[in-house]
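Let us work through a complete example step by step.
Step 1: write down the sequence.
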Amino acid sequence: MLITAPNLLRGGRGHGFLENVVTDPEFRDLGYGRAVVQAALSKAWADDCFHVLLQSGRADPRVHRFYESLGFEPGIRTAYVARRPT
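Step 2: predict the structure and record it as tokens.
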């Protein structure tokens, strides 16, 4: 899911937020995930987003290599999560 939102900085250029990137295990390593992420990035750039943010809660290094191979750079930002009180 790609969400784009306006931003007050960077000359008003928006942010893209990429979330819920999931491929069924039966269809992994066939290029579907790569195609979907590339399409989302193309859409964000066409919408003049300054950058696209993506967070991953997965510890699997293959997941991180996948995102890095698509141009995502780790360590540029720090993410924080506030959980809804129970």
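Step 3: interpret the result. Residues 2-69 form a domain with the Aminopeptidase fold (CATH 3.40.630.30).
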